Amino acid sequence: MGVLLRNPIALAALAAIAAPIVVHLLLRRRATRLPFPSLRFITPSNAAAVRLRSIADWPLLLVRIAIVGVAAFALARPLFVTPARRAGWEDRVARAIVVDVSTSAAAGDGPARARRAADSEAEAAFRSRVVDAVDLFSGIVEGVRWLAGAPPARRELVLISDFQRGSLDEAALARIPESYGVRFVQIVPQDGASGVAPDLTLEVRGRAGDDRAVRAALEAAGQRPAVAPVDDKATASVVIVALGGPVPPNIGPIRSAWMASVAAALPGVANGAVGDRTMVVMLDKPADSFELPLAIREIRRAFFEPRAWQELEPDRLAAETLTKWSRPPGQIDERTAAHADEDDGRWVWLVVLGLIGVETWLRRRLDARVATPRPAEDVRAA
Amino acid sequence: MIDPAVLTRIADLELVARGVVEGAVAGLHRSPFHGYSAEFSQYRPYRPGDDLKYVDWKLFARTDRIYTKQFRETTNMAAQIVLDRSGSMGFRERADAPSKVDYARALAAALTYLIVWQGDAIGLATCGDDRGEYLPPRAGQAQLQAVLAALARAVPQGSHPIAPGLARAVERLDTRGMVLVFTDLYEPDEALARELRRAARVGHDVVLFHLVTRAEIEFPYGGDLEFVDLETGARVLAAAGRSAADYRRSLADHLERWREQATADGVDYLRVMTDTPVDGALRAHLLRRAV
Questions:
Q1: A231 Rama sector, left if φ>0, alpha if ψ -120 to 50, beta otherwise
Q2: Contact: B247, A39; criterion CB under 8 Å
Q3: From the CA of A29, how many Å to the nearest CA of chain B?
Q4: Which regions of chain A are under pLDDT 70?
């Protein structure tokens, strides 16, 4: 059985142990003064003189020191980790539930299904927290942070998402401690199943002729060529973003095969998706949509927030991959006991009360003993 | 019987003295101070045990009733009370108990009352510090009042021995008389014993009332105590319980030594415990002297 202190700084109060010692020395028993007719027949006692200068009653002093010491211990909020208590901790699970609220997962009935799944997971947990995250990586970070400070229990991270490809990888999962369980609940929205954000529209920008190049590439890829000329308000399905400078290095490749093939056909675009100054985004909305300003903002955000880029990824992680990454919660880490939301301080305070009672009894007994003159019978018995 | 505790509550010494004397003398058939001439006082009906020589046979012949003659003793005895009022006489074993000087005052007042009542002279010398009082022996009610007033003023303090005061009082007694010494005998033994012996040898009837409290005899104390000498203010720390046996032994030796010394010197030694009724103590004294 171990003992944990939930408020160890309170042990500084142990310095107050000096107080009863000082009080004991200051209030040590003085000899009762007794006027007497003559000292002629009284033998002075050196032992009595010595006794009066020293600590008179060790049991009383020890009890007083114990009261202060145990009170300091109680203030430190001790937690006795018994086998039974540890078994209780092992039987419960603290669960961080990361709900993907990105645009793709929020399509159709996704939010409602995700919420139901989250509620179900929360109900089965001893303690839980739902983390809404636009991207899973930040959700994992937040969930791990909360679990690290959760009360003693086995720990589990549940990810609820449509799991677009690129939204999760082994590097992100490496942020989760080994002892934490990981589970994936895949919610695929019934509407907008393409995975492409349905409310995104396009803005066509670029050099003259880029629209034609895109159209040709689309036709070559078997897509319907509906690309409007630059600055034309006609319908289009391709966004060509011409940047004033190089593409930021944190912009990942376009993973969708068909999108990559279109990008590859464009002149000046390397690696199939990202060129030095251009970016190709495939959309299925007309260029004259009133949602154009929103689309512009979203695309710009995509360049500076790489995760948002995944909104445009239509493919999802395979179920086998998610199963492979899943694991059950491990044994309780000893360090988690420090975050217990309970302590045994009340029992220690009871001990303090008991000690106060003992101190009172000892003090009264001492007072009665010191009271003089003592009956003659007592003297004779002594 | 007058409870000693009552002494602490009665300020009127004459009242105390009268009560003590009435309690002590009742039933006594003979004057304790015999050997002096007496004058007729009154008749009273004969009671079994009365001395037949005091029966007035002529009156019996006339009235057919037996009366005993009572006499008022008219003597020229002079008695001198010497009262130790040193600090140690202020000791009392409880707050509601009389101090030794309270007890001595009551006993001395009773004797004064008795002596004045039988027409003798009484004087008083209080000793204890430099302001001791001295009243030469005189007879009469005025002297009774003066002695009682002086007794009432006797406050215990200081550490002066009473031997010099006793010597002066004895020197001033012109005729052979009675010297009544009230003390607790906490002073150098030799000087006081010498003066007592001297007083007895010049023919005075010396009575030594040794006043002792029960606490002094039994020493019923325990624990660590700081004893303070009532006369000198000196202090001694002692483990009372452990030193009790030595104390009792030493005190018993002291008491026995004084008893032997007094007896050897012809001094009438009477140890008086302050928790005994005063009239009882007086009666015991009178009975001893009546033998």
A1: left
A2: no
A3: 9
A4: 27-30, 47-56, 190-315, 368-382
CA distance B183 to chain A (A): 12
Whether the CB-CB separation of B20 and B2 falls below 8 Å is answered with: yes
Q: Evaluate whether B29 touches B51 at the Cβ level (below 8 Å).
A: yes
Provide the 8-state DSSP code for A135.
S
Most confident of A166-170, A302-306, B48-52, B182-186: B182-186
Whether residue B240 contacts residue B225, with contact meaning beta carbons closer than 8 Å, is answered with yes
Q: Which residues of A touch B (CB under 8 A)?
A: 29, 31-45, 47-49, 51-52, 369-376, 378-379, 382
Q: Where are the alpha helices (DSSP H) in chain A?
A: 18-26, 46-53, 58-75, 83-90, 110-123, 136-148, 170-173, 210-220, 257-265, 292-304, 319-325, 345-370, 376-381
Rounded to the nearest 10 degrees, how much is the dihedral formed by the CA atoms of A122, A128, A129, A133?
A: -60
Instruction: Count CB neighbours of B258 within 10 A.
Output: 20
B243 lies within 8 A of chain A by CB? yes
Residue of A nearest to B226 (CA): A33
Mean pLDDT of B172-194: 86
In chain A, the residue whose alpha carbon lies closest to the alpha carbon of B241 is A379
pLDDT in tens, B93-120: 888 888 999 999 988 988 888 888 877 8
For position A177, what pLDDT does the model report?
A: 92
Residues of B in contact with A33 (CB under 8 A): 225-226, 228, 235
Are B237 and A31 inside 8 Å of each other by CB?
yes
Nearest chain B residue to A29, by CA: B224
Contact state of A33 with B225 under an 8 Å Cβ cutoff: yes
Task: State the pairing for strand pair B235-239/B224-229.
Answer: antiparallel
User: Two tokens at B252?
Assistant: 């018993």
CB B59 within 8 A of CB B67: yes
Q: Which residues does B61 contact at the CB level (< 8 Å), separation at least 6?
A: none
pLDDT tens, position by position, B261-289: 999 998 999 999 998 888 778 877 777 76
Nearest to B118 by CA among B62, B222, B50, B37: B37
Mean of all residue pLDDT scores within chain B: 82
Chain A residue nearest residue B157, CA to CA: A37
B217 touches chain A (CB under 8 A): no
What's the whole-model pTM score?
Answer: 0.48
Give the residues across from A182 on adjacent strands: A157, A327
B255 CB neighbours in chain A (<8 A) are none
